[in-house]
Amino acid sequence: MKNLLFTLALLVSFSSFGQTAEEYYNSGNDKADAKDDYGAIADYTKAIELVPNFADAYFNRGNSKSNLKDDYGAIADYTKVIELVPNYYKAYYNRGNKKLNLKDVYGAIADYTKAIELEPNYADAYYNRGNSKRKLKDYYGAIADYTKAIELNPNYSIAYYNRGISKDDLKDDYGAIADYTKAIELNPNYTNAYINRSILKEKLGDLTGACADAKLAANLGHSESANWVASNCN
C-alpha cells in the first residue's frame, strides 16, 4: 500500500511539474510575442530549470537572445536544442544565422547544409547558404543556392537580387540585368535593384535605360541617383 501511495504521489508530482514548466513556457511565448524578450528569457529559463530537456524552451530562448543581439547566448541555446533533438532543422538554420553574424562563415555553411539535409525544401537555408558562399567569393556556388531557393519560392525577390549581384561579380552583365529585372517585377519599389540595373545599363552603353532606372531610384528617395540623373540625363 505504501508503494502504491508513493507511486501515486510521484505521478501527481510529475504532472504538476510538467504543467508548471509548460505554464512558464507559454508565458514566455506570450512575452516574446509582446516583444518583451528579457521577460521571455526569464520564463523560458524557469521552464528549463523545471524540465532540463525542454528543447522548445531552449529554442525559443535562443530566439529571444537573438532578438537582443546576444549571438553567443543564442548559439549556446540552439546547440543545446540540437543535442536534445538532432533533427531539429530550424535550430541548425538559426544557429547558422548567428554564426554568420559572428563572421564564422564556414560554420554557418555547415549549419545551413545540415538544415537542408533535414529539410530539403528549406528555401531560406539555400538563400542564406548562398549569401555565405558569396562572402567566400564562391559566386558559382552562391548562384546555385539562390537558384534552388528561387525554384522553391518563385516570388523570392531578394534571391533574384542577390543572384544578380553574383552574376555581376562574374561579369555576366546581361544575366545580372535579367535577375534585377525579375526582382523589380516582384517588388516594384526595390531601390537597389534599380540602382544596380542602371549601373549595368550605363556600362553596356544604354544611357537611356540607365537614366530611366536612375530616375526610378531617385523617385524612391535615393539622393545619389537623383544627382547622377541631374548630371547625365536630359
Description:
With 234 residues, the protein is an all-alpha fold. It has a domain at 15-85: Alpha Horseshoe (Serine Threonine Protein Phosphatase 5, Tetratricopeptide repeat). The protein is 81% helix and 0% strand. The protein is built from 13 helices and no strands. The protein has helices spanning 2-33, 37-50, 55-67, 71-84, 89-101, 105-118, 123-135, 139-152, 157-169, 173-186, 191-203, 207-219, 223-232. The radius of gyration is 24 Å and the shape is elongated.
Helix percent reads: over 70%
Per CATH, which architecture of the domain at 15-85?
Alpha Horseshoe
Could you say which overall geometry the principal axes of the C-alpha atoms support?
A: elongated
Q: Work out the radius of gyration.
A: 24 Å
Q: What is the CATH superfamily of the domain at 15-85?
A: Tetratricopeptide repeat domain
Strand content: under 5%
Q: What pattern of helices and strands is seen along the backbone? A: HHHHHHHHHHHHH
